[in-house]
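Go through this chain for my students:
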Amino acid sequence: MGKIDTAASILELTTEGASKQYLKNRTNLSADVLEEYLTMLGSKDLVRILKARGGKEDAAATIKITKRGIQFLNLYNSVTAKYLTLPAK
């Protein structure tokens, strides 16, 4: 699985909002690697990190896909379906 596939997986998991711990468990990424992805996705406005109560951005924060993230995910899924799936026999 490449970087773009991992990013798409994270975006799919955040459609309803997800905690960092949930993402870590579902993606099998280390905390450091997950943090790198979330920083990158956040800087591209593909996800938004909503701070937990008390204003701290930690494991209790909720990560949610943005409108731009949904557009990216739709494009990713279209390209994958069109070019990276085997034709039916």
